[in-house]
DNA sequence: CTGTATTTTTGCAGTCTCTGCACTTTTGCG
DNA sequence: CGCAAAAGTGCAGAGACTGCAAAAATACAG
């Protein structure tokens, strides 16, 4: 099984003093991720072994697993952070179009995970080349799916108490599916134009518009 | 990596004479699947080992992997068969609503994979209990995503040559996302009411309708 | 600076999944 | 029956991953 157990990844309390410990952790993470990506890009994911990565980045395999949990961990990068409970509450009570609202909080959570831009670029390249990795990533997302579904459900309960259990359930699943499905498309466009956050919302609206046109039978 | 390599699974040429060989294969498959599911339901997927399954079903581990490719193979069941090239051609030139058409051929391919009803039931139960398996299943589907995207693309090229490369690409991704996303919802409803094929199309239309309403801002 | 407590890294041994290869058994068929 | 093809099996080995305890690094007084 082990869908991915990215390990603790302790986050510092606030921002105060990074401290040597923390700085080392970050440095090491970067080093390993970079090594892993370089190797994977050069030889292909299947050929690369954890031992190779460890030798290249000079950490023990045991430490590698402490950090990343799985062989692919260093390639996939940190899992998107869970939205804060305030953000969730805001979503639950927001009254905009539900898909749009959900998409927005997901996008925020997604781009909140900072990462070395160079590493980020390599990752993109690798993902394009190896669709299997994309799938793995989706799997990790799927784990969040339940959580996401839960907050959608909450919103529906609050705003549409008239729905039956089944209706609400179906609608929840559909909303989550649409959003998670459209997400890659939007993030692709976003990455093509390194615009600002406002631009992101425009993209989101445009995508939703496209979806509407797709599901609406031609006039 | 090995997202799933379900192994050959040679299909007989037609229907003529099953032959002892074929009959044995089927028998063994059933036996192993059943054993795997029983063990997984009783002890949990993570606890069960391939060796346990093999001992319970009296095949060598090597044979197990020849049949199922991965530990989870016997739990997941056969991968949905790829739609026939005639079906694909039909889809490419069909002029109905694209999501509906795609959904229909996917549904056909999906239900074409027959399986022992008892095994089927156990599988459903297990999937409910272990969401990680669902994710694995999604991963296998994601592998088909590329293939699916390709035929959607073909249809767009034929029916909407006016679209730019990028537009077509975006639209393709969105269509595939929507369909694959909505699929579980529909199959859930379908399984709840073991209706006939015609009923399936009704469900599909209803789901698409719901999607439209979801993405359409409230009046 | 020094000594101590705490956290992190590491080595090691072991389990489990999965693969290639060679060998045996089973099945198909003339 | 006898031979050829196909399928099942055993074995050895690589690679992913885990628990545990020793070792090293870091924090933190005094």
UniProtKB/TrEMBL annotation, chains A, B:
Tell me the keywords, alphabetical order.
DNA-binding, Transcription, Transcription regulation
Superkingdom per UniProt: Bacteria
Q: What is this protein called?
A: HTH tetR-type domain-containing protein
**Ranges for region Disordered:** 1-25
- Domain (HTH tetR-type) spans 26-86
DNA-binding region listed in the record: 49-68
Q: Name the species this protein comes from.
A: Demequina sediminis
Q: Name one Pfam family in it.
A: TetR_N
List the coiled-coil residues. Answer: none
Show the InterPro entries listed in the entry.
Answer: Homeodomain-like_sf, HTH-type_TetR-like_transc_reg, HTH_TetR
């Amino acid at each position: 099984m082990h869908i991915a157990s990215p390990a603790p990844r302790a986050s510092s309390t606030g921002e105060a003093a990074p401290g040597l410990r923390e700085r080392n952790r970050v440095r090491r993470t970067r080093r390993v991720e970079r090594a892993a990506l370089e190797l994977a890009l050069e030889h292909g994911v299947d050929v690369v072994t954890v031992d190779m990565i460890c030798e290249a980045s000079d950490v023990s395999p045991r430490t590698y697993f402490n950090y990343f949990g799985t062989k692919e961990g260093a390639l996939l990068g940190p899992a998107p952070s869970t939205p804060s409970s305030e953000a969730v509450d805001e979503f639950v009570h927001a009254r905009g179009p539900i898909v749009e609202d959900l998409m927005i909080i997901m996008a925020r959570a997604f781009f909140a995970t900072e990462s070395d831009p160079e590493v980020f670029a390599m990752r993109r390249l690798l993902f394009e080349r190896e669709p299997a990795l994309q799938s793995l990533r989706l799997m990790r997302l799927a784990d969040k799916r339940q959580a996401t579904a839960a907050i959608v459900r909450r919103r529906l309960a609050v705003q549409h108490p008239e729905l039956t259990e089944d209706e609400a359930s179906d609608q929840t699943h559909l909303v989550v599916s649409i959003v998670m499905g459209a997400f890659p498309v939007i993030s692709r466009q976003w990455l093509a134009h390194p615009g600002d956050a406002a631009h992101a919302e425009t993209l989101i609206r445009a995508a939703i518009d496209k979806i509407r046109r797709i599901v609406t039978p031609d006039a």
